[in-house]
Amino acid sequence: MTFLRHLPTLLCLPVLVIATPATALTIGVVAPQSGPYQLLGQQVRDGAAAAAAANGTVLTFIDESCEAGSGAAIAEQLKAAKADAAIGFLCSESLDGALGVLSAAKIPALTLSVRWTIVMEDALKHDWPFFRMAPSADAEAEKLVEVMLRDWPGEAFALIDDGTIHGRELADAIRVSLEERGMKPVFADTYRPGQEQQVALVRRLQKTGATHVFVGGDRNDVAIIARDAASEAIALSLLGGDAMTAANQPVPLSDGVRAVTLPAYADAPSAATVAAAFRERNIEPEGYVLPAYAAVTLVKTAADAAAASGAALRDRIAKGTFETVLGPIAFTAGHELKDNPYRLLEWRGTAFVAPTPATE
Q1: pLDDT at 18 over 90
Q2: Superfamily classification of domain 26-135+267-330
Q3: How many CB atoms lie within 10 A of CB 18?
Q4: Which of 11, 44, 153, 193 could bond 162 through an S-S bridge, CB–CB 3.0 to 4.6 Å?
Q5: Of 214, 135, 130, the residue nearest 172 (C-alpha)
């Protein structure tokens, strides 16, 4: 199963969809309505419903069980509802068996979550109208390499990981890419995660001469490494990945620790008005709320352009640039986000924020 992080949120109010004319654009919203991912599904429904109310779109809600073999049934429900497009798809299982059926019915599909590489390879091979509004599987490593090439030239750096599949593959991808560009780590190793202290590790890092360290591990491991380095008076500039966006406990993160992760979309100027409107309704605009809002906006804008030009909806989605609450969104020829959504952020006090201009 592939989905974005489970971000903590508040239970949302029931969705109300205002009736619109039968000729209005109909968008299927595929998201869990029960089970362990119900809360994430509610975020999708809240975001989509607010956007639909703002632009006159009709929504049809399809339950997503995230069970193997469920994709074909989801596609048939979308066809029966005469959906013009579909958004959501938090789980890869929902796409397996669905995309071919949706393509035949000329229903473009936009996932807010699934990063599985194979599903996009199959979509491109068969010319299915499938688009990814989530980062690709390679986007995190690409942004980390970009940051290190820019900020760490001439620095003695280390790459360490926690031995998990994601941590190890991320560190390896970074190492290979950097070495191809002439940057080689002074130290690369796997550490033992989940320990109460990492003094031995930071002392080993000191002995190698490393001053900058990428940690392919979770937030608490990074927090412990930062704490123990400070207690040993060992100066280490620490950088983590997307796993750093998690609860700031049990060990709080030290100021100055950096991460390449997704920004808090609700804090973006493009989302200010919509985010405030959600909060007035006691809905916190986190998780999938704003991405779902953006997806409905994107499809509606593309559908209007398609109607005006006589082009197919899938072609307008593929070729357009769309202003959304997440900022401008456009897709590559491979149906991936044209702009990498990951950003370099720095922990200050209680949140990750943009680094100061002098270091960004």
Answers
A1: no
A2: Response regulator (3.40.50.2300)
A3: 10
A4: 193
A5: 214
Q: What number of other Cβ atoms are within 10 A of residue 229's Cβ?
A: 23
pTM for the model stands at: 0.87
d(CA 64, CA 301): 26
Query: Of residues 204 and 358, which shows the higher confidence score?
Result: 204
What is the CATH topology of the domain spanning 139-261?
A: Rossmann fold (3.40.50)
Torsion of CA 66, 71, 75, 76, to 10 degrees: -100
What is the token pair recorded at 317?
């989605």
Residues 67-126: tens digit of each pLDDT: 999 999 999 999 999 999 999 999 999 999 999 999 999 999 999 999 989 999 999 999
Q: How many CB atoms lie within 10 A of CB 7?
A: 15
Distance in angstroms (rounded) separating the CA atoms of residues 120 and 145: 23
- 260 forms beta bridges with 344
How far is CA 102 from its chain centroid?
Answer: 24
* Residues ≥6 apart with Cβ < 8 Å to 353: 345, 346, 347
Omega before 250 cis (within 30°)?
yes
Instruction: Give pLDDT, residue 24.
Output: 87
Confidence grade of residue 357 (pLDDT, cut at 50, 70, 90): low
Query: Strand (E) positions, 71-223?
Result: 85-88, 109-111, 130-132, 157-161, 187-190, 212-216
Percent of the chain with pLDDT strictly greater than 70 = 92
Q: Would you list the domain boundaries of the chain?
A: 26-135+267-330, 139-261
Helix (H, G, I), strand (E, B) or coil at 327: strand
Say if residue 50 is exposed, middle or buried (CB neighbours under 10 Å; 0-12, 13-18, 19+). Answer: buried
Spatial CA neighbour of 92 closest among 149, 127, 48, 130: 130
Decide: helix, strand or coil at residue 190: strand
Q: Is the dihedral of CA 214, 196, 7, 248 positive or negative?
A: negative
Do 26-135+267-330 and 139-261 agree at the fold level?
yes
Instruction: Give the largest Cα separation in the chain, rounded.
Output: 70
Do β-strands 258-261 and 157-161 pair in parallel, antiparallel, or remain unpaired? unpaired
